[in-house]
Amino acid sequence: xxxxxxxxxxxxxxxxxxxxxxxxxxxxxxxxxxxxxxxxxxxxxxxxxxxxxxxxxxxxxxxxxxxxxxxxxxxxxxxxxxxxxxxxxxxxxxxxxxxxxxxxxxxxxxxxxxxxxxxxxxxxxxxxxxxxxxxxxxxxxxxxxxxxxxxxxxxxxxxxxxxxxxxxxxxxxxxxxxxxxxxxxxxxxxxxxxxxxxxxxxxxxxxxxxxxxxxxxxxxxxxxxxxxxxxxxxxxxxxxxxxxxxxxxxxxxxxxxxxxxxxxxxxxxxxxxxxxxxxxxxxxxxxxxxxxxxxxxxxxxxxxxxxxxxxxxxxxxxxxxxxxxxxxxxxxxxxxxxxxxxxxxxxxxxxxxxxxxxxxxxxxxxxxxxxxxxxxxxxxxxxxxxxxxxxxxxxxxxxxxxxxxxxxxxxxxxxxxxxxxxxxxxxxxxxxxxxxxxxxxxxxxxxxxxxxxxxxxxxxxxxxxxxxxxxxxxxxxxxxxxxxxxxxxxxx
Length: 492
What we know:
Ribosomal Protein S5, domain 2, Heat Shock Protein 90, alpha+beta, 3 domains, 16 strands, six-stranded mixed sheet
């Protein structure tokens, strides 16, 4: 057996390397909040103060707090063995999150714990570690505790995390540019927390109290990615898969078509959620969103599943099988879950597509002669202008044979030049703008007169036929009242 010798890592090198694990500001703050939730906190205050000479970011909670012994152990790297069985309310895993998340943003981490009215504090300073070339943790005395920024946020019990020497936050900028960068990052923080902790903020996680988060005094509202408050959201049958005798819940949703969202809902979801990129599975561990917007390579993202979302819930006892990373931003489902998810995808993709096509199907059912026709076979789908539409047919009847052939060729050229890629891109990202065609009332009436004259070239036309042709054009969809009054006036 070889001789065994202690061989600890070099403190400055390892701590410097751990700063680059890939945290962003929002994922770093979310990792700190995980600790607050594990400590049964229901109120978290986040302050980012750039006003002083030394900018500070502070995160305070009203959780159970820590004694000095517990705090010093919590400041140890790898304080928790990820293989140990933990409480079902524990959102940590490796015992690294507090340190790695903090050092990704700052060089000086101070943590103050309060329990039963007694406060204690400890501090990692990377400059001290570099200077001493050792794992030198600072333990705060009473005066240092009192002078710590925002210590007044702490009550009789709770934890305060303070980041100073924020060398990563400002991206080497200063002045107004620095403030604009931080403001943009804090906007991302608010949206990230609103999504990742939306079930806690809504009070929907068993075993946890309803959570309140304030960012610079502004309350963070939950963002529900499943739009469950809308009656048009389709809740499909829940499924349960057992992994090592542990249940994993799978709940599919089909979001409503954008036309069924109120203006407020649409603006809210459009601002925070791209329907194409955010489709997929939403993986929750103990109620906390870990990963989202991914089908795990089971299918590519596309229109067929654009409105599909699948909520997957698993407990922390399955962490190893889900390959949770240190940042808790990646999760790969076990084989049993992937197999069941694949079956669910095939079921929900058709439902999602139907939500999109209902409006088109309805048009074809309501109108006997639409302007655009869709042809599909096993390999190709194409759209053509319908030459038998009453308006086109009537116009063509007044042309010579040669002119009629030229006219049909022109309609075919229009159809073949239809830019489907651009339409797809615009509709995927800005669907409401695709429905925004409207005309002033006086212009609507003028165009209706022109249309009536064109249709009367071959003789009189009755009100019903005129109304049918108007409906097929879609040009006047937003002017129903003007069309109704025009027909009453022109077809007595």
